[in-house]
Design goal:
The chain has 389 residues and is an alpha/beta fold. It has helices at 25-43, 56-64, 66-78, 111-127, 150-174, 193-203, 214-219, 224-233, 255-262, 287-291, 322-333, 361-382, and strands spanning 2-4, 10-16, 48-53, 81-87, 134-139, 177-182, 208-213, 238-243, 245-249, 273-277, 280-284, 302-308, 318-320, 342-345, 386-387. The chain has one domain (2-246, 321-387): Divalent-metal-dependent TIM barrel enzymes (TIM Barrel, Alpha-Beta Barrel). 40% of the residues lie in helices and 20% in strands. The protein is globular, with a radius of gyration of 20 Å. Keywords: Isomerase.
Length: 389
């Protein structure tokens, strides 16, 4: 979906396909047919943006076979879909029964992360719409915080500088500009937007910036306006933003609140949990650890890294951090000029929701995704953006 900002630029809205994990190119093509096109039809749109997730094997198949890349582009066109951004965070296995810490491997100290991201950039230049010259890729925020030392930091910095050089060369070759954004996430080396400033300043290249995920922003109790103003002051580009909402518990000391939270403690994904105290941010690596005894202070609200559907906050006594998303969006695109032109709804946890909240089959999932995009569209038009055909 495309929108005209009051300054005349085009802002793109997509939804991320990591909600339909597939490891192979055939699986990706099936996603387009079985999921993405039905969402577009529900929205009554001739064209729908998707933020494509390509696992290692699918990306390799596309860069090693030009005809396969052409076929993907044709299939996107045929189904009324377009891609301006890729989710390069998960490397493989995102559909596994247990993902947890695996999603942070390989990290930016591992040469394979550089090679994979380079492959994604090459693919993106081949599938951008004809009238779009800039694409974006989001990636993990360097590494999970443990086992990351000065040597790892040096390797990661060198890898990102090499990536920037490759992206420069790719633009010279194709005429398409690709930028990559580190996506701060709780528990990682770059947990907050503030943590991103130093490593990105050390790289100091316009190709490498930040991807602001509003669920992660909220989980770390960052104020959107303060965070985004600080990034602007530090000249850190917001390459893209993922529109998502975290799980919020206002009174985590109450037994009924803990019981409600326990329903979201599931085995597939990591749900880092945080609370803001007078001494600073406190947290656990997973929701279950927070609920176990007194591992986390419960005198103030908790937020858990669980991407809940934008349009459907959980029932009381829980809620979502949708207000944080709205505040962030106001700063991202509500000013005289947008801070970013690529927005991506990213709710990948539909099948990890408590059983009574999960969609039953493809039809209900498509309905839910369409409802999320409708909400995001309404937020954008309320900010003065005009939806384009």
């Amino acid at each position: 979906m495309r929108f005209r900002h009051p300054d005349g630029t085009t802002v793109h809205l997509a939804y991320c396909t990591n909600v339909h994990p597939a490891e192979t190119l055939d699986g990706v093509l099936a996603q387009l047919r079985d999921h993405c096109e039905p969402v577009r039809r529900r929205l009554g749109r001739d064209r729908l943006g998707i933020g494509l997730w390509l696992a290692r094997d699918a990306a390799h198949a596309l860069v090693s076979d030009p005809s396969a890349l052409r076929d993907l582009r044709c299939e996107l066109d045929r189904r009324g879909l377009e891609v301006v951004t890729l989710n390069g965070f998960p490397y493989e296995g995102f559909g596994a029964e247990e993902v947890k810490y695996r999603v942070y491997k390989p990290d930016w100290a591992d040469p394979e992360r550089l090679d994979h991201t380079t492959a994604l950039a090459r693919v993106l230049t081949g599938i951008l719409p004809d009238d779009v010259t800039e694409g974006t890729v989001s990636t993990l925020p360097l590494a999970w915080r443990t086992a990351y030392d000065d040597g790892s930091a040096d390797k990661a910095r060198t890898a990102l500088l090499t990536l920037a050089e490759r992206l420069d060369a790719l633009q010279e070759l194709t005429g398409r500009s690709i930028r990559v954004g580190l996506e701060p996430e709780p528990g990682c080396v770059v947990e907050t937007t503030g943590d991103a400033v130093a490593p990105l300043a050390a790289i100091a290249h316009h190709r490498i910036g930040i991807c602001v995920d509003t669920c992660h922003l909220a989980t770390s109790f960052e104020d959107p306006h303060t965070a985004l103003d600080a990034l602007t002051a530090a000249r850190v580009p917001v390459v893209k933003s993922q529109l998502s909402a975290a799980l919020h518990a206002e009174h985590p000391h109450l037994p009924e609140v803990r019981e409600a939270l326990a329903a979201f403690d599931e085995p597939r994904f990591l749900h880092q949990t945080r609370t803001s105290t007078a001494a600073g941010l406190r947290g656990t690596d997973d929701l279950g650890a927070a609920l176990a005894g007194d591992a986390l202070p419960d005198g103030a609200p908790w937020r858990a890294h669980f991407h809940v559907p934008l349009h459907a906050a959980p029932a009381a006594p829980l809620t979502s951090t949708l207000p944080v998303l709205k505040s962030a969006l106001t700063r991202l695109v509500g000013g005289p000029h947008p801070l970013t032109r690529h927005l991506e709804v990213e709710t990948y946890t539909w099948q990890a929701l408590p059983p009574e909240l999960r969609p039953r089959g493809r039809t209900q999932l498509a309905d839910g995704i369409a409802a999320e995009l409708t909400l995001a569209r309404d937020l954008l038009t309320d900010l003065g953006l005009k939806e384009l055909p």
